Amino acid sequence: MLNLILNTGFHYRLAMSLIAFLSVTFMISLSHAQSLQPPSLDTVPAGRSNAASELTLDPSQLNLPPVQQTQASTEPQISPEDLAREMAIRRAVDQYLPMETDEIRRVLKRLSDTQEAVQTPVRPPAKPDIHIENLRLDPSSPPPAIDLATDIVTTLSLLDVTGQPWPIVDVAFGGEFDVKLPEPGGHVLRITPLKDFATGNISVRLLDFTTPLTFILRSDGETVHYRYDARLPEYGPNALLPIITGGGGIDLNAGDRVLADMIEGIVPEEAQRLLVAGADGRTSAYNFGEGIFLRTPHTLLSPAWKSSARSAEGVNVYYVEKTPILLLSRGGEPIKVTLSRDTN
């Protein structure tokens, strides 16, 4: 009922109904008020006019009290039309708007509390996460799982080993999900579950790649992937080929969790940060094991790296042998970077 009252079309219909009701009620009340008026003194029933004229009384013969002169009332008299109109208005208000203003506020407050109780999720909101997955192409490996949540869009990006987009050719999925396909040549899928506990899977076929990629879709966890970057350990059609390598080229094995963490900005606890001179704050270096991890938006020219990866945001991660000097390319201009231990 309250939703209808808030509707503009209903306002118009209600107003027209009120006008019609007021008109009918006014006519009925007016007729009733006129019927209550006393008969006019000038009105004499037929057949009695002669008898009345023949009656003659002497006021001196009647024992009547003296007539007292009273002051005429100054209060305004309500006409039958005004009385009928007032009665019609009161009847319309009682029928169509019976509640007082404070009662209406109480009803609206109760409605608001009810809507809040119905729309508030029983479970706490899922924890948002951005995940980078290095895919295994081994047929014996289980497919990776993408955590979803209702009313939240998860973005699935397909990248090659250099961090470049890998175009999607075909998509098929099963389960209660809404999947937005990419534009021609695009590499991004947007997935939203339609139920709180939906499960299913999705199969993606990439350009110039024979094996289709499969993922598990689930929406029953405590974590939701706002963004899910799936990396293939292969060069895609748009790959950025390395200028200098240490013999193995770019290497991003699915088991190299440290390299994947460095791409996300997660530094291992055993890594020791080095001081970087010659580059801005976006470049960082860490001693780790037998080599150095370098995280930078620039391209490494020298020395040759053992392994490397690139994020979708353009951040490069290199693993090189321990050296105090690096040569980077910043917008095509070579820059010299020196590394040293932090003595503090």
Layout of helices and strands, plus pairs?
Blueprint: H1 2-5, H2 8-35, H3 49-54, H4 80-96, H5 101-119, E1 127-134, E2 145-147, E3 154-159, E4 168-174, E5 177-180, E6 188-193, E7 199-206, E8 213-218, E9 223-231, H6 257-264, E10 272-277, E11 284-288, E12 291-296, E13 299-302, E14 305-310, E15 316-321, E16 325-330, E17 333-341
Helix pairs in contact: 2-4
Features:
disordered N terminus, 6 helices, 17 strands, five-stranded mixed sheet, 344 residues, alpha+beta, 24% helix
Question: What's this model, at a glance?
Answer:
The chain is an alpha+beta fold.
Explain how this protein is built:
The protein is of the alpha+beta class and 344 residues long. It has six helices and 17 strands. The strands form three sheets. Strands 13-16-17-10-11-12-15-14 form an eight-stranded antiparallel β-sheet, with helices on one face. A five-stranded mixed β-sheet has the order 1-9-3-6-5. α2 (8-35) packs antiparallel against α4. The protein is elongated.
